[in-house]
Amino acid sequence: MASRYDCTDPDGLLTGMRLARAALGRGELVVVPTDTVYGLAADAFSASAVQRLLDAKGRTRQSPPPVLIPGPPTLDALASEVPQQVRDLVDEFWPGGLTVILRAQPSLDWDLGETRGTVALRMPDSRIALELLQEVGPLAVSSANSTGDPAAMDVDAAERMLGDSVSVYLDGGPIEVHDGFAASTGSTIVDATGLSTGGKLTIVRHGVIPDDEIARVVGADLVA
């Protein structure tokens, strides 16, 4: 049976984080607040945990989850190449609502699904999520909802959709809606895999960071 902890209370945060770490270590799922939506998290290096995440959402391996990381140093550990344009974007928008698709290190011992050798990486601007990431390392995280439903903006919505497929729910209160965006708007996703071969960076999902802000940083290297 799932457990839920009020992370706005110091005791609830302490207990919830301890049990979330333990659950992730067992290959189980945890719901955690981020800066954009509530996320459904699994150990990125456990193939069975990632499959459990996909099953809980009703997704196939053709929809691999992005990976949340605790900071830019992990970017270099997980990506085989980080172009300067990506470093400029990360300097500007991390922690925050920017996800970057890069070529993954070929030596990584993980299975996120049909990634075609890429990985989508983000450093969230969330105290709870970052604390968990700093303690357990990279997490495969997708929005905490059933496929086809709006992403959860509070833990109640996540629990209604995911139920006992999740071991621990970390309740950080409602997610603040970004100015100018509808509730459940996710991160802006950019594909940087073409930069190394002379191509341009492409916006593949329009999210909480406006396109013109991405263009301001990378200029002519962007295809919107």
TrEMBL record:
Q: InterPro entries in the record, alphabetically?
A: DHBP_synth_RibB-like_a/b_dom (IPR017945), Sua5-like_dom (IPR006070), TC-AMP_synthase_SUA5 (IPR050156)
Q: What is the lineage of its organism?
A: Bacteria, Bacillati, Actinomycetota, Actinomycetes, Micrococcales
Q: Which family does it belong to?
A: Belongs to the SUA5 family.
Which of UniProt's keywords are assigned here? ATP-binding, Cytoplasm, Nucleotide-binding, Nucleotidyltransferase, Transferase, tRNA processing
Query: Coiled-coil regions in this chain?
Result: none
Query: Is Nucleotide-binding there in the keyword field?
Result: yes
**Pfam families, alphabetized:** Sua5_yciO_yrdC (PF01300)
Which Gene Ontology MF annotations are present?
A: ATP binding; double-stranded RNA binding; L-threonylcarbamoyladenylate synthase; tRNA binding
What is one term from the GO cellular component aspect held by the record?
cytoplasm
Catalytic reactions of this protein: L-threonine + hydrogencarbonate + ATP = L-threonylcarbamoyladenylate + diphosphate + H2O
Please report the stretch or stretches of sequence annotated as the YrdC-like domain: 14-209
The protein's name in its UniProt record: L-threonylcarbamoyladenylate synthase
